[in-house]
Amino acid sequence: MTPRDGRLRTALTVLTAWSALAGAALVGAAPASGVAGAHTRNGTVADAKALVGKAVAPGITYKEFDLQAAQGVARAHVLSVDLSNPHVRVDLLHSAAVASRAAVSRLAEAQGAVAGVNGDFFDISEAQHPGVEATGATVGPAIANGRTLKAAVPDGQRFGPALPPGTNTKNVLGVGLDGRARLDSLALDGSVRSSRGRWALGGLNQYALPQGSIGAFTSAWGGVSRKRAVCGTDIDRAAPCSGDTYEVTVRRGRVVSRASTPGGGPIASGTTVLVGREAGAQQLRELAKGQAVRIQHWLVAAGTRIRYRFAIGGYPVLTHGQPLPGLNNTASAVRTAVGIANKGRRLLLLALDGAAAYRGGLTIAEVAHTMRSLGSVDAFSLDGGGSTTMVARMPGAGAVSVLNHPSGGAERPVPNGIGVFSHG
Q1: How far is residue 230 from each of residues 86, 246, 267, 361, measured CA to CA in Å?
Q2: How many CA atoms lie within 13 A of 146 on its CB side?
Q3: Residue-wise pLDDT tens digits, 67-82
Q4: Which regions of 129-211 does DSSP assign to beta strands (E)?
Q5: Beta-bridge mates of residue 249
């Protein structure tokens, strides 16, 4: 075994399992603590599977342990979720609007989740476009309780670290109507039809639209300005905003207003705002006030054609038991990830600790190997750094508490996450 292979295996050292964590103070309750004294047999990450977990609810357990990684000790927090348990389900944690953010603990409390982690990467800053509002909307597709909320932005418009080779912004982790988790890719399929013709829809509730396209914004978007949607290009997020734009508002199947620039404010139920840039703007200019328009959109699963009850964006790091080729093994950070085990019947939610003693974190290659050692066959990376947060409502508690230390010292508001629900 080469030294590099040895680093990728990530040696496990359980320093103080279930011990109280030291570090930055949290908003809300302190991290959970429990019994100490768990030990490994041979110092590999696989031993973490043998650690006794603390029950959160039937079918849901939590454990923490330490990893000796390339940049020092990293502390891992893991939720194991048995999807075969009829009283357990997972779904999207999200605010009332796609373009809005809240702390994971608040999202979990609002939706009645017993546990959860943060989710997809998102539009966090618009310093490259002065005067344009950051939307807070996520990069990838999102489905909540069977309802499509949004589609993916172009790859070049993505916020977050570089994608591994062969992955893209359409990648999702989802749970189908069959109750099984899997990795897939969800592409938007939609159209705008009128007497002027049929035009393909290039976006749905996205902070960035493909060049030359038309995007649809529904009440799910919220009240944030739609200006960001026409900024940047398909290959350069920092490129200037387009000067050739047009917006059409369609209510109950007819055009009710038109504008030369994207607007803002809440969108009423039964109303869709169409935003076009370049060729898409030229097409929308053909629609007259009062004209009948039919808008359709849905997400198509590339790999399985299955219908999803829940889906969240990110990118795969492990497929069929093998790490993706070309994963970065030099940049370490605090991470959030989710693994799939037992033929899609179990999820393993991982959040690293952001306290100062553990902030070296893991490389994304180490994440893949760690998830495999925990029993995952497939694994998916979510947003990390200051966003990484795990919460749970432990038995007897009246509310969820934060189990890890977010690296910023308090929870960062995020647009979505994975919620774990228990129904007795």
Answers
A1: 44, 10, 18, 36
A2: 5
A3: 999 999 999 999 999 9
A4: 142-144, 147-150, 171-176, 181-194, 197-200, 203-204
A5: 257, 273
Q: What share of the chain is helix, strand, coil (3-state, %, to 5)?
A: 10, 35, 50
Closest CA to 262 of 249, 245, 287: 245
Strands 315-319 and 336-341: unpaired
Torsional sign, CA 132, 293, 300, 95: positive
> How many angstroms separate the CA atoms of 155 and 150, rounded?
15
Gap between the Cα atoms of 107 and 420, Å rounded: 11
- pLDDT higher than threshold 70 for residue 222: yes
- Cα→Cα distances 176→28, 85, 173, Å: 34, 15, 10
Nearest residue to 215 (alpha-carbon basis) of 281, 169, 264, 306: 281
What are residue 381's DSSP bridge partners?
315, 337
**Residue 209: pLDDT over 60:** yes
Distance CA 103, CA 335 (A): 17
Q: Cα(116)–Cα(105) distance, rounded to whole angstroms?
A: 8
Q: How far are the Cα atoms of 44, 107, 286 from residue 289, in angstroms, in the given order?
A: 67, 40, 10
Residue 270, classed as helix, strand or coil, is coil
Which amino acid, 37? G
Residues 203 and 215 sit within 8 Å (Cβ to Cβ): yes
Number of H helices, E strands in the chain: 4, 26
Residue 39 CB coordination number (10 Å): 10
On whether the CB atoms of residues 369 and 321 are closer than 8 A, the answer is: no
Q: What is the pLDDT of residues 339-385, one digit of tens each?
A: 999 999 999 999 999 999 999 999 999 999 999 999 999 999 999 99
What's the CA gap between 392 and 117, in Å, rounded?
Answer: 9
